[in-house]
C-alpha cells in the first residue's frame, strides 16, 4: 500500500526507549486512501513513531467491497524499508518492478524488501471476495541493509503456535522460539493471534524487545487494558510474559522488536537518513529512474507529492 496523503508531513521517529513495561493506549487516526478506502493509521502515532523496526501500521476493514473496486493502489516507489501485506479477509494482487505477480490471500505473508529501490501496485482482483480486511505494515531497514537488493517473498505456509483458546501465526520474526521464514534484518516479532471468548493466556515475550498490540476484531484485555480496533497499546520493554483475556472472540496483532536505535527520515513512501536521500528518491521517481517499472496495472502510476519547505530531519523512535 502507498501513503496516498497528498501533503505528507515528515515523520519524526525516535528518542529514548521505554526502559520497562508500560501500558500506553494510543488512538489511531482515520486516513482516507483514494476514493473509497479508509484506514486506521496506528503507527506513526502522535505518541509513538516505532515499535522495534515496525514504523508504519494501517488497519483496514472489514469493508464490504462487493460492489466496489476495493483496493486500487497504483504503481508507487519504496526505499529503505520492507512492506508486509497481511489479510484476514479478501485478497490483494501484488505486482512489482521485479516482475512479481502474486495474489496474497488471508494468513499468507507478502513481504517486499524495497532495499535501494522498488516500485509496486496493489489491487483487489476482479472478481473479488465480498470482504476486505487486513493490515499494511512497514519495517525500517537498518543502515547496514537499507541499500540491499530488492526482493519479494510470498510465504503461504507460516509457523503456528497454539494454546488452549489461542491460535497464533508467526508472520515475521520470532515468538518463543517459533520463527517465520520471512527475511528480517533486525530482531523482530510480528504475530497474529486468534482468541476464543473467555480464554485467558500468558504469552511468553522477549524481555529486551519492546512490544505493542492492536485488535483486528473483537475486544481483548491485554495486561488489563481493554483493547478494541482503532487503537494500539504500547507495552514497552522488560516483559517476560503478556497476560491476555478475550472478552469476545477476538484477533490481534502483536508487534515487537529490539528498539531501533538509528534515527530515520520517513517521508511519503521512502525511508532515508538525510534530506538529500529523500530529495533524490523523489526526483528519481518523477524522472522514471531507479525504481523500475510495474507492468500490467490498469492505470497511471502515482505522482510524488511536493516536498515540504521545511528542512526534513531524521528523528528517533518515540516522537
Ligand atoms: Mn506500497
In a few lines, what is going on in this structure?
With 319 residues, the protein is mainly β. It contains one helix and 26 strands. It has a single domain (11-257), classed as Sandwich (Jelly Rolls), CATH 2.60.120.
How would you describe what is shown here?
This protein is mostly beta strands. The chain has a single domain, classed as Jelly Rolls (Sandwich), CATH 2.60.120. It is built from 1 helix and 26 strands. The strands form 5 sheets. Strands 2, 14, 15, 16, 17, 19, 22 and 24 form an 8-stranded antiparallel β-sheet that branches. Strands 3-4-5-12-7-10-13 form a 7-stranded antiparallel β-sheet, with no helix packed on it. Strands 6-11-8-9 form a 4-stranded antiparallel β-sheet, with no helix packed on it. A hairpin with a 2-residue loop joins strand 20 and strand 21. About 3% of the residues have low confidence. The protein binds manganese (II) ion. Manganese (II) ion (MN) binds next to strand 6.
Amino acid at each position: 500500500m502507498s501513503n496516498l496523503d497528498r501533503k505528507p508531513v515528515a515523520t519524526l521517529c525516535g528518542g529514548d526507549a521505554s526502559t520497562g513495561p508500560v501500558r500506553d493506549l494510543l488512538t489511531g487516526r482515520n486516513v482516507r486512501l483514494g476514493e473509497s478506502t479508509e484506514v486506521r493509521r496506528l503507527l506513526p502515532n502522535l505518541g509513538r513513531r516505532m515499535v522495534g523496526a515496525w514504523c508504519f501500521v494501517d488497519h483496514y476493514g472489514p469493508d464490504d467491497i462487493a460492489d466496489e473496486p476495493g483496493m486500487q493502489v497504483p504503481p508507487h516507489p519504496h526505499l529503505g524499508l520492507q512492506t508486509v501485506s497481511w489479510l484476514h479477509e479478501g485478497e490483494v494482487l501484488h505486482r512489482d518492478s521485479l516482475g512479481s505477480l502474486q495474489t496474497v490471500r488471508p494468513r499468507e505473508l507478502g513481504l517486499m524488501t524495497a532495499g535501494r529501490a522498488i516500485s509496486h501496485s496493489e489491487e483487489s482482483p476482479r472478481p473479488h471476495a465480498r470482504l476486505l480486511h487486513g493490515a499494511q505494515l512497514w519495517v525500517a531497514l537498518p543502515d547496514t541493509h537499507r541499500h540491499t537488493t530488492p526482493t519479494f517473498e510470498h510465504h503461504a505456509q507460516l509457523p503456528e503456535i497454539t494454546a488452549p483458546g489461542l491460535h497464533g501465526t508467526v508472520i515475521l520474526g520470532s515468538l518463543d522460539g517459533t520463527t517465520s521464514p520471512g527475511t528480517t534484518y533486525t530482531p523482530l516479532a510480528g504475530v497474529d493471534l486468534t482468541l476464543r471468548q473467555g480464554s485467558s493466556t500468558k504469552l511468553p515475550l522477549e524481555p529486551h524487545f519492546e512490544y505493542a498490540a492492536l485488535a483486528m476484531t473483537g475486544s481483548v484485555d491485554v495486561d488489563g487494558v481493554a483493547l478494541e480496533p482503532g487503537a494500539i497499546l504500547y507495552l514497552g520493554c522488560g516483559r517476560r510474559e503478556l497476560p491476555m483475556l478475550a472478552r469476545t472472540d477476538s484477533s490481534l496483532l502483536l508487534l515487537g522488536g529490539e528498539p531501533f536505535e538509528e534515527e530515520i527520515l520517513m517521508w511519503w513512501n521512502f525511508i532515508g537518513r538525510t534530506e538529500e536521500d529523500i530529495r533524490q528518491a523523489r526526483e528519481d521517481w518523477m524522472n522514471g529512474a531507479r525504481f523500475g517499472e510495474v507492468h500490467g496495472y490498469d492505470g497511471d502510476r502515482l505522482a510524488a507529492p511536493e516536498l515540504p519547505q521545511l528542512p526534513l530531519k531524521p528523528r528517533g523512535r518515540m516522537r
